[in-house]
Write a structure and sequence with these properties.
158 residues, globular, mainly alpha
Length: 158
């Protein structure tokens, strides 16, 4: 796989897992509303995918080492992977009761993050378990904080 596509794909998928998982947990604990969670997922899939793609675009430009084609490959790969992967989180929300959908979404996202982390670690010839553990720990911290913030916001509303 071309380097720029790999950069965009790994960034987009990782960002989709972390951002969408945090959003789902936070909105669920704050609202317990399927509509709010689904709306949040769609917002992430669109607005954050464009934001991440522009971030990668500008980062690649600032390195001043890539061709315009390489920069656009990374930009498009980031947008597409973030958008498409974030949209996969909508499926459980549409098909399952909300609590079950939140759990299914977390299992899905954390599994993909673990597999991606494992593949990256193996390519770098470093301990996969350390890399997987590090990345999952970060995801769990985000999930825990967003759950707490959602609970906090829910108590303010009452």
């Amino acid at each position: 796989m071309r380097e720029q596509l790999r950069i965009g794909l790994s960034f987009g998928v990782t960002s989709a897992v972390i951002t969408t998982s945090g959003l789902i947990v936070g909105l669920h604990s704050g609202t317990h509303s399927k509509v709010a969670v689904l709306g949040g997922i769609l917002t992430i899939a669109i607005a954050d995918a464009f934001s991440d793609a522009l971030g990668i675009h500008m980062s690649e430009e600032s390195e001043n080492t890539h061709t315009a084609r390489e920069i656009w490959e990374a930009t498009i790969a980031t947008f597409m992977s973030k958008f498409l992967f974030a949209m996969t989180f909508a499926l459980p929300i549409l098909l399952l009761p909300l609590l079950a959908a939140v759990i299914a979404s977390l299992v899905w996202g954390l599994s993909v993050l673990a597999v991606l982390s494992y593949v990256i670690a193996c390519k770098q010839c470093v301990s996969p378990w350390r890399v997987v553990g590090e990345h999952l720990l970060i995801a769990f911290v985000v999930i825990g904080i967003t759950h707490w913030v959602g609970d906090l916001i829910a108590t303010w509303g009452t």
